[in-house]
Amino acid sequence: MITTLSTSKVIDRTFSTGDLPILVTCNDQKQYICKYMRADSVSAYKLTSELIGSILAKYWNLNTPEIVFVKILPEHTKPFAIQYNHSAEAIGYQKINNAIDIANYINDDIKQSQKLFTQLLKIALFDFWIANEDRTCNNANMLYVDRDEKLISIDYGGIFNTNSYQTKLCQLSSFDSIIYADIFKHLETNSDFQNIVEKSKKYYDICINKSRKIFTDLETLQIPKSWNITENILRQKINELFERQWIDDCFSNYKETLRQNF
Ligand SMILES: Nc1ncnc2c1ncn2[C@@H]1O[C@H](COP(=O)(O)OP(=O)(O)OP(=O)(O)O)[C@@H](O)[C@H]1O
Ligand SMILES: [Mg+2]
Description:
- The protein has 7 helices and 9 strands.
- By secondary structure, the chain is of the alpha+beta class.
- The protein has 2 domains: 4-94; 100-261, Phosphatidylinositol 3-kinase Catalytic Subunit, Chain A, Domain 5, CATH 1.10.1070.
- The strands form 2 sheets. A 6-stranded mixed β-sheet has the order 1-5-6-4-3-2, covered by helices on one side. A 3-stranded antiparallel β-sheet has the order 7-8-9.
- Strand 3 (22-25) and strand 4 form a beta hairpin.
- The chain binds adenosine-5'-triphosphate and magnesium ion.
- Residues 17, 139, 141, 155 line the site of magnesium ion.
């Protein structure tokens, strides 16, 4: 169940990344990074991607921030020039404290552990299946929390081939994968390729089956009515995710991309 909160004070800050998210404090006293509805019709589908990506990531046992819906009150954005549709709920990612952004340079801040490598492989495989074009070596969309030894996946605004809801899913290029980033080389130490492929395949089959259940009834996604999403368009896209050919091709693509980087 995703709860709906309201902002409780003037927004804390803005980010200059692609979606210009904002950091807000809500009426539960916690801070959330919010992605919000713009005037265009595309942003509703982008928010839907953020929502679906977050829900699925949980089912895949990835570390991913908790999400809520946020009513951003107009009086709380006044000092900032933010163009948004305030009658539509935003999606809020609970702020993770003491996390660092994974950048394209890896330094000794990040432990070289098998645990982190396993988390990275799961994120990489998930991205192939969900066609996430926004996590690349230039933009990792991952946070690192040293005390918990966790890689946290963020930002699902680029899934479904950057929200191509009206065209067929298409495979990521190997270069679009986080497997091409320095962090892969940093964590891949003394690993056995064949063993990883076998373990990944077992994990993949379990995750696909778990994911299937979420979509039997679209109501469980809790997509706000204010987003005005056309159910048929969404249903079509979700069905593609579970086509046998797509499932098999994604795994082959993941395996080949791994092989190229071992
Ligand atoms: N849950 C979180 N906890 C802490 N920091 C976060 C969280 N979510 C996002 N951030 C910070 O906010 C930045 C922007 O978030 P995000 O990547 O989701 O936005 P974006 O505008 O969609 O990015 P992009 O440019 O990749 O499209 C991140 O790089 C990270 O520094
Ligand atoms: Mg991002």
